[in-house]
Amino acid sequence: MMAQYLEIKADHADALLFYRMGDFYEMFFDDAVAAAQALDIALTKRGKYNGADIPMCGVPHHSAEGYFLTLIRKGFRVAVCEQMESPAEARKRGSKAVVRREVVRLVTPGTLTEDALLEARRHNFLAAFCTVRDEHALAWADISTGAFHVMPLTRLRLGPELARLAPSELIVIDRDEAEVSETASDLGIPVTPLARSSFDSTAAEKRLCALFSVTTLDAFGNFGRAEVSAMGALIDYLEITQRGKLPLLRTPQREAVNRVVQIDVATRRNLELTRSLTGARAGSLLAVIDRTLTPGGARLLEQRLSSPSRALDVIHARLASVDFAVEHSRFATDLREILRKTPDLDRALSRLSLDRGGPRDLAAIRNGLEQGTNIVEISAAEKLPDLLAEAMRGLTGFDDLSTLLDSALVAEPPLLARDGGFIAQGYDAELDDSRTLRDEGRSVIAGLQQQYIEQTGIASLKIRHNNVLGYFIETTATHAQKMQSPPLSETFIHRQTTANQVRFTTVELSELETRILNAGNRALEIEKRLYERLKAAVLDCAAQISQAARALAEIDLTTALADLALAENWCRPQVDDSRAFAITGGRHPVVEHSLRQQSGAPFIANDCDLSADSGAAIWLLTGPNMAGKSTFLRQNALIAVLAQMGSHVPAESAHIGVISQLFSRVGASDDLARGRSTFMVEMVETAAILNQADDRALVILDEIGRGTATYDGLSIAWATLEHLHETNRSRALFATHYHELTALAGKLEGVDNATVAVKEWQGEVIFLHEVRKGAADRSYGVQVAQLAGLPASVVERARVVLEALEQGEREGGPAQKAMIDDLPLFSVAPPPPPVKASPLTAMLEQIHPDELSPREALDLVYQLKAAAKA
């Protein structure tokens, strides 16, 4: 056995080998040591090899999925090695023959299909990147849903596209592993190198044609060599990991870079579109707006939020559908009630195609198609917009399949086919007979006994059973002579005579006995055969079912966005090809949601107008920290994203000319692994914006230059603002504490000043969170420091130094230096003297308000007044 293990392990050196031994998967040698540590299970030993103990650990096969997930998350790959025959079959080849085993599957992050291993509301993409001469391409597929896409791109766009897709695994040519790994590792994406032969474009084209049963790929699109190579490598990897059982993939869809808004890695992180800065879903825009009811709808929402469209026809079609659902809210509510009962068709179909499914997946297909039919029925009287009407057409044409599955399956089938009991009573006569014999063998025997009593006229005749004879007919010796005489002797065959009884059998009874003994296994075999037949019927309709799944996701997303718009009072944006960007009463959806949850405080809405017929349109935003500048910047970017994904937006009104690119540089942290300071990270991100932004981009910048000396930072911020205005000519929001920049509003035609209003009251600053035209003349940093809890002595010292610096600035350089030189050295203020207790305080401490009568309370007021005068 160990020789077999080592031979199989040699072919899968880079994976943990789960070696099936009866009811367990066992691991040996280094695999056992690594798995025991990763899974926190016992490490033991089994036998010896070259004189040393063999480390061993194991897990039950029926709960292996949970262990797979743990190992995958810790960076391992798993080779699943199954027994391909029973021990009895192996012994036929010889008493010492080893059970034949084969690796049936490689479990990797990008090839998961089981519900227990996947997030139901997220895609699990496997991606492949390829370079052919000067061409680059990225292909990606989700084998759990069948999605399959490809796009040409530049090398510079690889990082942003990987950030958009967030694949679980990236395949590259082995020669490119080092170059690509840095980009992928920044995003937490594991890289799998493959030999160059996997990316050969000629072999790749043949592989794709064979997969889709076509002679040419021309019907799917005009793909370049790099695109074909990337898709072919992806299919080759699936053949390797799935051991030839390829999933049902849809025909490849070619995506164009210029069809979606370009959003780079830093911008996605800063805006927290689908993940917060901590990496969690909670706190992101996606978490706040997700009201979908089906896994397919949730995955579609994340896809559209990650890839806002630039195509006006697409945006308008999506908005028209949401408008319809908003205006017909009762109809939309009825749709959502049906959607609540709709299972995940895509993933059920994928598991069935890979032989990892079961009766429950068949039931999911049945239930999903049934709910689709219900949706079509209640929509028949509605005049639907084009997008919804197309979705409804995708839910029709399943009458025969639905009837078959409905008649064949029980309401709640078991998870696995081997458990049986999933075929409905009355569907198959042979199965019903086997079940009757299995479950009601005693009553069947009783019926046969009554038949023999009537046939013989012997009322005392019995059918009995023992472990030696099995079933037999027993009667007294008196009646035995009658049964041994013609014509009964032709039916009843003598078996045994005892002192008081004579025992007989019949051909019918012997056959019945055999059938009863085999009824359980027979019923299970029949169910397995019927399962295969039903699975084949489903897979024959796979393309149509996949289309129905997409239709249900579209309906779910549309009604979910309508529900959000109605509940949150969002408006339909006007999106066109102009250079407008006019938001009235805009709000930050995540901050507004957080305020409501935490304190119930209202969010202060603000306007923003970056519209310009030509040239740049830039708001230079000043004001103190904590006043809401960053929130204002982000909310306008999020409103643009929501509008172009086809959603209503959190505003009173919104007019947005299509945005081609979205750039955000808000906040920064150091990157010590690459030797980058916070300021260096800030400059790298700013450089990327200035080098890429076009005149249809929306740029939001916060505190450019703050990580270096004052005049260095001011000069960088000044030059950056001029470059945005003169060269990029983008629409932009530029927040800064360099008040000197406000002078540019008088020099640059496209720059306007705006400020976040505050109010001072008795030395403290009150944030109004209102954005107004104009410029701030100070940053209120000392007041914010006081709010943060700095010691009073530090705050007071800061006030003194600030006053001296401001006075010196007004009086010139030498005077400023003299002022600073005259300042006394900082000294720690002595602790304040203990506060002497007030007589009034002492009186109040003795009072129990709940025990006072009205007269006593009035007397107390007079007493307090007298004590205050004293």
UniProtKB/TrEMBL annotation:
InterPro entries: DNA_mismatch_repair_MutS, DNA_mismatch_repair_MutS-lik_N, DNA_mismatch_repair_MutS/MSH, DNA_mismatch_repair_MutS_C, DNA_mismatch_repair_MutS_clamp, DNA_mismatch_repair_MutS_core, DNA_mismatch_repair_MutS_N, DNA_mismatch_repair_MutS_sf. Keywords: ATP-binding, DNA damage, DNA repair, DNA-binding, Nucleotide-binding. The keyword Nucleus does not apply. It holds the Pfam family MutS_III. ATP binds at G623, P624, N625, M626, A627, G628, K629, S630. One of its GO terms (cellular component) is cytosol. This is DNA mismatch repair protein MutS.
